[in-house]
């Protein structure tokens, strides 16, 4: 039996973890004290609490690696990193120093303490760089500098490691099999979905910045990443509840790939398959491609959940509403929902109805079910977020119209072509889930730097807390499945009693 190979990964990414584990390599992962480790331990990962910016912490890690691996490290992956987005003219040096401690000095410290283990194993050192270190990433001059420094550090380290031979197990080409050096690899990634931007949440331009007149554009740049909360949890819930296949669709393909891969570990159906599709819900062609790709893979679509959406960046009274943000929310939250409902409706109309066993005999569950993610803002108004409230009211309106019934679908279409998408006569149900405050990345952004607001909000909710994503996805699964076969065209509130205290519109 060959001895185990070991990889040490800092700044753990799920896709990196799954890739390394798939090679049969044991993983030692570093986490910060506040980060959850249950999902890692369940996969057999050796978890350590390490701060790569502190010598004493990395020294303790070195002892752990020695004990676990016997002093051999086949792969060292330096992935820990933070971001600092700010115009070069407004850069705070203290923030840059903090970032360099992680992005540059962190990998240097890891190599300093772990290099003998890598040499002993004739292994590989991998530095996760960024396209920002090669070409300009706007408002990221200092971040770009940190990644450029890491790239050059890795390039020099590669030359300096030449005297030490390496194992050809990980060779990817004939020239790689020349055992002349420990390999040092810089991976230049593009813009991917990670937690690195959490450090930018709540960041704003100084009032005296020359860029302040362009603050809306700056804020849009900060929040360019897609959310990954309720929709992702819904997709994982379908996998865990026995679906045979799930299509993960996101504007960020890497995020979709990561979630699809994660779902395989949670799936309970032995025939389960997962695919990842890139989609821009504001594009008609992109949405149709998503549906066509899903049909090609699975032959039918029984359930469609439309969860793509944007939150507001800054609450403002109506008189100061940013129209660029208004247009953006309408494009994604409203037009995106409409395009998805339309494309899914067309696909489901061509499917055969499904029958399931009921207590009193076979029961038809129709040709499909669509659930839109609306909001408590679909039924009540909150101050200073007119763009979000208007968008979510529209989503509920789409849901009611698409889920409406008519006695004769042919007559309804002839009388009013706009009713051509009304789905009840075709055995297609359309409903909406209307959550209030849910623990998601979107909410984290809204409350970044203001924990007292989160506490005050929780206290104002009759349930005494924000909802968990699972509490929303449970309702989505109910509205999707056969137990709600006679429910259509409704908005289901999941708000912990919040709207009971308000006057509904």
UniProtKB/TrEMBL annotation:
Q: Which UniProt keywords apply?
A: NADP, Oxidoreductase
Any GO molecular function: oxidoreductase activity
Q: Which PROSITE patterns match?
A: ADH_SHORT (PS00061)
Keyword Lipoprotein in annotation? no
Tell me the GO BP annotations in alphabetical order. Answer: secondary metabolite biosynthetic process
Q: Which InterPro entries match?
A: NAD(P)-bd_dom_sf, Sc_DH/Rdtase_CS, SDR_fam
Q: So what family is this one in?
A: Belongs to the short-chain dehydrogenases/reductases (SDR) family.
Q: What is this protein called?
A: NADPH-dependent 1-acyldihydroxyacetone phosphate reductase
* Taxonomy of the source species: Eukaryota, Fungi, Dikarya, Ascomycota, Pezizomycotina
């Amino acid at each position: 039996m060959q001895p185990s190979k070991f990889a040490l990964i800092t700044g753990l990414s799920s896709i990196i973890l799954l890739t390394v584990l798939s090679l049969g390599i044991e993983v030692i992962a570093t986490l910060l004290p506040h980060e959850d480790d249950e999902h890692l331990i369940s996969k057999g990962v050796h978890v350590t609490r390490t701060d790569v910016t502190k010598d004493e912490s990395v020294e303790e890690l070195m002892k752990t690696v020695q004990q676990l691996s016997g002093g051999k490290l086949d792969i060292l992956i330096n992935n820990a990193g933070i971001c600092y987005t700010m115009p070069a003219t407004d850069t705070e040096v203290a923030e840059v120093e903090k970032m360099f401690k992680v992005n540059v000095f962190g990998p240097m410290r890891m190599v300093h303490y772990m290099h003998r283990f890598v040499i002993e194993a004739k292994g590989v050192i991998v530095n996760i760089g960024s396209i920002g270190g090669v070409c300009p990433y706007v408002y990221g001059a200092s971040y770009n500098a940190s990644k450029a420094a890491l790239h050059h550090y890795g390039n020099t380290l590669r030359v300096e490691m030449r005297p030490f031979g390496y194992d050809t197990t990980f060779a990817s080409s004939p020239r790689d099999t020349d055992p002349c050096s420990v390999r040092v690899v810089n991976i230049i990634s593009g813009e991917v979905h990670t937690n690195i931007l959490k450090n930018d949440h709540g960041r704003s331009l100084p009032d005296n910045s020359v860029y302040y007149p362009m603050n809306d554009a700056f804020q849009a740049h900060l929040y360019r990443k897609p959310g990954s909360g309720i929709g992702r949890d819904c997709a994982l819930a379908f996998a865990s509840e026995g679906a045979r296949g799930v299509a993960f669709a996101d504007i960020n393909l890497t995020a979709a790939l990561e979630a699809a891969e994660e779902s395989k570990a949670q799936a309970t159906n032995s025939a389960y398959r997962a695919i990842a599709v890139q989609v821009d819900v504001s594009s008609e062609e992109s949405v149709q491609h998503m549906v066509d790709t899903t049909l090609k893979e699975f032959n039918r679509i029984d359930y469609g959940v439309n969860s793509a959406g944007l939150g507001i960046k800054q609450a403002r009274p109506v008189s100061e509403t940013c129209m660029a943000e208004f247009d953006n929310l309408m494009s994604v939250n409203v037009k995106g929902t409409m395009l998805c409902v339309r494309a899914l409706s067309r696909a489901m109309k061509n499917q055969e109805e499904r029958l399931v066993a009921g207590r009193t005999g076979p029961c038809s569950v129709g040709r499909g079910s669509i659930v839109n993610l609306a909001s408590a803002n679909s039924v009540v108004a909150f101050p200073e977020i007119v763009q979000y409230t208007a968008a979510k009211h529209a989503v509920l309106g789409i849901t009611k119209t698409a889920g409406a019934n008519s006695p004769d679908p042919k007559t309804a279409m002839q009388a009013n072509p706009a009713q051509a998408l009304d789905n009840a006569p075709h055995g297609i149900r359309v409903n909406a889930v209307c959550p209030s405050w849910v623990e998601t990345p979107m909410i984290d952004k809204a409350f970044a730097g203001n924990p007292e607001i989160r506490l005050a909000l929780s206290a104002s909710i009759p349930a005494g807390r924000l909802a968990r994503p699972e509490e929303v996805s449970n309702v989505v699964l109910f509205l999707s499945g056969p137990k709600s076969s006679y429910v259509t065209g409704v908005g289901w509130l999941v708000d912990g009693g919040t709207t009971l205290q308000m006057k509904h519109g």
